[in-house]
Design goal:
Helix content is 33%, strand content 20%. An 8-stranded parallel barrel has the order 1-2-3-4-5-6-7-8, surrounded by 5 helices. Strand 3, helix 3 and strand 4 form a beta-alpha-beta unit. The termini are close together. It catalyses: D-ribulose 5-phosphate = D-xylulose 5-phosphate. Belongs to the ribulose-phosphate 3-epimerase family.
Length: 216
């Protein structure tokens, strides 16, 4: 099981120490939430934190754009990201949606689409051949530390069945309220990657938490 550390809840006064500690504890990648204060009601990281992270991290970085008009930010985060995820709900114009996917792929980056809890997976059916990852939000985006919404389990199961049936190579990720108490449920439902933030960074022993999440 791939565990990606969301740094939204880490101690930014000790960023380098936190990054090295969580890497040593066994995470597989970093998840960077970029929020614009408009698409979601919070502000988070810009390029200064991203540039600092990519200098320290040895694990891959996935940039999650929780912003309107994500196409404008692809160039800001392309160098140093393994992939870029943007929200289905952030773009109303279908042509702009397609152009955003195209731009990410042209930069030789993995392209992911995030779905908010109410958005059905059927919305992504026209794009399944073009994307590498689908991120199922199990909370409403914008703030770390929220409680997991169990109703997304059915959504994950349905998506996994579809991907298997169509023989697609798409990673299913889950973000929001993920921790040891629900990780096995998510893995059983079909998740390939779990994005974990506060469940790791609120504990002293990062390694113990990650082992519980991975069930090893």
């Amino acid at each position: 099981m791939h565990v990606s550390a969301s740094i939204l809840n880490c101690n930014f006064l000790k960023l380098e120490e936190e990054i090295k500690k969580v890497e040593a504890a066994g995470i597989d990648s970093f998840h960077l939430d970029v929020m614009d204060g408009h698409f979601v009601p919070n502000l988070s990281f810009g390029t200064p934190i991203f540039n600092a992270l990519k200098k320290i991290a040895t694990k891959p970085i996935i940039t999650h754009l929780m912003v309107f008009s994500p196409i404008k930010m692809v160039d800001w985060f392309r160098d140093g990201s393994q992939g870029i995820i943007f929200h289905y709900e952030a773009i109303e114009n279908q042509e702009e949606f397609k152009e955003t996917i195209k731009k990410i792929k042209e930069k030789n980056l993995e392209c992911g689409i995030a779905l908010n809890p109410p958005t059905p997976i059927e919305k992504l059916f026209p794009y399944l051949s073009e994307i590498d990852e689908i991120l199922i939000m199990s909370v409403f985006p914008g703030f770390g530390g929220q409680k997991f919404m169990p109703e997304v389990i059915k959504k994950i199961e349905d998506l996994k069945n579809l991907i298997t049936k169509e023989n697609l190579k798409i990673t299913i990720s889950v973000d929001g309220g993920v921790g040891p108490e629900n990780s096995q449920l998510l893995i059983t439902a079909g998740a390939d990657k779990l994005i974990v933030g506060s469940a790791i960074f609120k504990e002293k022993d990062y390694s113990a938490v990650i082992k519980k999440i991975k069930n090893v």
